[in-house]
Amino acid sequence: MASDFESLETRIIHAGEPDPFAGAVVLPIFQSSTYLTFKADSYHDQGYIRLNNTPNHEALHAKIASLEGTEDALVAGSGMAAISTALLTVLKSGDHFLAINCLYGGTHALVTKDLPDFGIESTFFDAGRPETWEGLLRKNTRAIYVESLTNPLLQVPDLPAVIEFAQKHDLVTLIDSTFTSPVNFRPAELGFDLVLHSATKYYNGHDDIVAGVVAGKKALVERVKHRLNHLGGTLDPHACFLLHRGMKTMAVRVRAQNESSLTVAKGLEAHPKVTRVHHPGLESHPQHARARELFSGTGGMLSFELEGGVAAADKMLSRVRIPYVAPSLGGVESLITRPALTAHKSLTPEERKAFGIAEGLIRLSVGLEHPDEILADLVRAIEG
Predict the structure, then answer these.
(1) Residue 315's closest CA among 307, 92, 365?
(2) Which of 56, 108, 194, 364 could cross-link 237 (Cys pair, CB 3.0–4.6 Å)?
(3) What are phi and psi of 194, to 5 degrees?
(4) What is the pLDDT of residue 94?
(5) What percent of the chain has pLDDT over 90?
(6) What is the DSSP letter of 340?
(7) CA 292 to CA 20: how far, in whole Å?
(8) CA 57 → CA 61, 234, 251, distances in Å?
(9) What would be the CATH architecture of the domain defined by 250-383?
(10) Of 287, 294, 303, whose CA–CA distance to 156 is shortest?
(11) What are phi and psi of 108, to 5 degrees?
(12) Alpha-carbon distance 365 to 327, whole Å?
């Protein structure tokens, strides 16, 4: 989408903003469910809140498209609403798609338990081994789905190879870029067709709403919008307002979290009771070079394992004071959890093991507290 503003920081504040309503510099909440409609070219053009076209929705769509560098964008009622609607738009009964083999637990459940009920099949693939992908294709393979940074192991897929492979085989490319945010990575610039986010996380950044984002080529986003209009996964105008407000600090938040998480990761890596730290900013990370090539920053997330496994992890979680022991991520408050009990609880122990997710793995979303104080609190909890 063309913009008069060159920098991401300025686009975050000013892109997509309508003329001030009644002189207000902040877009108000338009709580009306219905709008005057004298002529509409289609059902989807009527002024109605479920059709995602209130002034609050339209401002978000324009701003997000500017940030992602796409022709169009769309907000949804949650990240899973965005993911499920996008997949149900590009796939139909009888289709097959490839999905990265270490997915967020909610997406994994959708792919393995729900989509088969719609006649949609999938095969997991190792995103670090492009030489194996050809053998997974079927005549009915239509799409390929990846994450920019995997949850919870912070692996960096070979994203340029995904684009090359998809173009060769005429596959629609979808990427969940929640962990990177447009501050660190804009997948459309690499060639991805649809970019997805749980805007609950870094887009909003304040742990007070759930929302989703779909961005991409206009014709494809329009198809997703029509499907979302039918499925009803609309974002409420008040949540739109909060997302709009939260987005305006995204650049400063994410860049601070990039630095803080790396500080914490380095400190944990040096601790004798920490057996492994997963963070793409660490030189020890197997895809560190790829992360530096692809991303402007390596994000606010990390995960780690302790000597003593589950027992040590649970003891630590019972002792931390700064991070809240809670699911979700990307907010100003640090959040810590054991994925086997939260984000990946829907997987069986065997599935978690196959994906490399240890039962005692701890995932940390680094917030905006001082990184030295976060690290000191974690060390105290580990050693206690």
Answers:
(1) 307
(2) 56
(3) -130, 130
(4) 98
(5) 90
(6) G
(7) 40
(8) 6, 10, 21
(9) Alpha-Beta Complex (3.90)
(10) 287
(11) -60, -45
(12) 9
DSSP class of residue 290 equals H
Q: Are 212 and 198 in contact (CB under 8 A)?
A: yes
Helix or strand holding residue 278 (H, E):
strand 274-278
Residue length, the chain? Answer: 384
Task: Write the class of the CATH domain 8-247.
Answer: alpha beta
Catalytic position from the list 72, 95, 158, 176: 176
Are the C-beta atoms of residues 120 and 92 closer than 8 Å to each other? yes
The pLDDT value recorded for residue 1 is 41
Neighbours of 193 (CB within 10 A): 22
Going across the sheet that includes 96-100, the strands are 72-76, 212-216, 194-198, 172-176, 141-147, 96-100, 121-125
DSSP state letter for 339? G
C-alpha span between 180 and 301 (Å, rounded): 9
Per-residue pLDDT reduced to its tens digit, 294-337: 999 999 999 999 999 999 999 999 999 999 999 999 999 999 99
- Of the listed 63, 142, 201, 338, which one is catalytic? 201
Judge contact between 336 and 323, C-beta under 8 A.
yes
CA–CA separation, 301 and 202 (whole Å): 11
Q: Which residues contact 182 (CB under 8 A, 6 or more apart)?
A: 8, 67, 68, 69, 250
pLDDT of residue 24: 93
Place of tokens 């997330």: 301
Q: Is 176 a catalytic residue?
A: yes
For residue 2, pLDDT beyond 70 = no
User: Does 250-383 match 8-247 at the fold level?
Assistant: no
Domain ranges of the chain: 8-247, 250-383
336's tokens:
């810590």
- Give the Cα separation of 79 and 13 in Å (integer): 23
Is 207 assigned a catalytic role?
A: no
Helix (H, G, I), strand (E, B) or coil at 95: coil
By the 10 Å C-beta count (0-12 exposed, 13-18 middle, 19+ buried), 22 is classed as: exposed
The amino acid occupying position 38 is F
- Residue whose entry in the numeric block shows the structure tokens 């887009």: 203
Contact of 177 with 187, CB cutoff 8 Å: yes
Catalytic residue (one of 50, 248, 276, 292): 50
